[in-house]
Amino acid sequence: MNIVSVLMITYAHENYIEQAINSVLMQECDFEVELIITNDCSPDNTDGVIKKIIKNHPRSSWIKYIKHDKNIGMMTNFVFTFNEARGKYIAICEGDDYWTDPNKLQKQIDFLENNSEYNLVGHHATDSNSKLIGKHENDSFSFEDIYYRTLIIPTASLVFRNNIVFEDWITKVYGGDKAIIFLNAKKGKLKILPFLGSFYRLHSGGIEQLYKDDLRKSIRNINEHIVYYNLTKHLPKSTVLRKKIIKNHVDIILYCIYTFRFSYLIKAPYSLFLFLTRGRIYIN
Predict the structure, then answer these.
(1) Alpha helices in the chain (DSSP H)
(2) Which residue range is the domain that position 77 belongs to?
(3) How far apart are the first and last CA of the chain?
(4) How many domains are contained in the chain?
(5) Is 94 domain-assigned?
(6) CA distances (Å), 263 to each of 252, 258, 260, in order?
(7) Beta bridge partners of 38
(8) Whole-angstrom Cα distance, residue 223 to residue 217?
(9) Same domain, 53 and 131
(10) Would you give per-residue pLDDT tens digits along the chain (284 residues)?
(11) Do residues 92 and 192 share a domain?
(12) Residue 283 falls inside a structural domain
C-alpha cells in the first residue's frame, strides 16, 4: 500500500493548528497517511493544542510529532520535515492553512498514479480575502514554462513524488513553494486540477505579511531571484530574471528617494553595479 506523507511545519499557530490538523485527519483515502508535524519551538501554546489532538483524536495514529528545542527557521525546518517522510508521495499543509475537501488527497494521488509523466499536482484554493488562487489559463506546465517566471500553485495544494533533492540553496529562498515547484519541474510536468481543495490564511504572523513594505519586498525579491538566476543563467530565457533583478534594484533606489529613507541609496546602486559586472549582489 502506498504511503502519503503530509508535511506540516508550524510556528506560533496556536489559533490555527487545530483546524489544519483536523483537515488532514478528515481525509478519506485508500492509502496510508503519515502526518509529520514539526513545531519550530513556538512561543505560544501550539504544543499544547497538538498534544491534546494526539491524545483525543481517533486518527491520532496518523500523527508523528516533533518539537524542536530551539528555533531553526522556516526553510531549515521544512527540509528537516521532508527528510522525516517515508511516503511515496509528499503533500503539504502548513500549520496556518487547511484543506477543505475530504477527497483532496485521493484525487491527487489517483492522478499521479495514472500519469507517470507528471511529478507534481496542485489544485485551486481561496484565501482570507475570498480570492481564488492557482487558476491559470493553462493547467499543465513544463520546466520551460516556469523556470523564468513565477507560477502560483497554492502551497497547501501541492502533492508530489518523493524523488526530489533539496540542495544548499534552499535555505536562501523565502518562498518554499517556489523552490518545490522549481525542483519538481526539473523532474517532470506539473498539473493543476480544477477543484477547490484548500484555504490560504492571511494573518499578521504569516510570512507574506512580513514583506508588505515596498522596500523589504524588493530586497526579498532580489535575494530570491538571484538564486534562481544563478541556477538558470545558462538558459536563454534567464534574461527575464535578470530584468527582474535590475528592476527591483531601481525600485529600491526610487522608493528611498520618494520616502526619504536613505539607508539603501548607497547599497542599492553598488549592488546593481556588482550584479551588472560580476553577477553578484550586495543586498540583505
Answers:
(1) 17-25, 46-56, 74-83, 104-114, 143-146, 176-185, 214-232, 238-259, 267-278
(2) 3-208
(3) 47
(4) 2
(5) yes
(6) 10, 13, 9
(7) 9, 66
(8) 10
(9) yes
(10) 579 999 999 999 999 999 999 999 999 999 999 999 999 999 999 999 999 999 999 999 999 999 999 999 999 999 999 999 999 999 999 999 999 999 999 999 999 999 999 999 999 999 989 999 999 888 999 998 887 777 889 999 999 999 999 989 998 888 788 999 999 999 999 999 999 999 999 855 555 555 567 888 899 999 999 999 999 988 877 888 899 999 999 999 999 999 988 889 999 999 999 999 999 999 98
(11) yes
(12) no
Q: Is the separation of the CB atoms in 222 and 270 below 8 Å?
A: no
Burial class (CB in 10 A: 0-12, 13-18, 19+), 1: exposed
Question: Cell numbers of 160, please?
Answer: 508530489
Amino acid at 2: N
Reduced to 3 states (helix: H, G, I; strand: E, B; else coil), residue 56 is: helix
Contact indicator for 37, 69 with CB cutoff of 8 Å: no
**Packing angle, helices 267-278 and 238-259, rounded to 10:** 160
Strand, helix or coil at 90? strand
**What residues pair up with 198 in beta bridges, in sequence order?**
99, 125
Residue 284 included in any domain? no
Give Cα separations from 75 to 32, 146, 180, 199, 280 (angstroms): 26, 21, 11, 21, 23
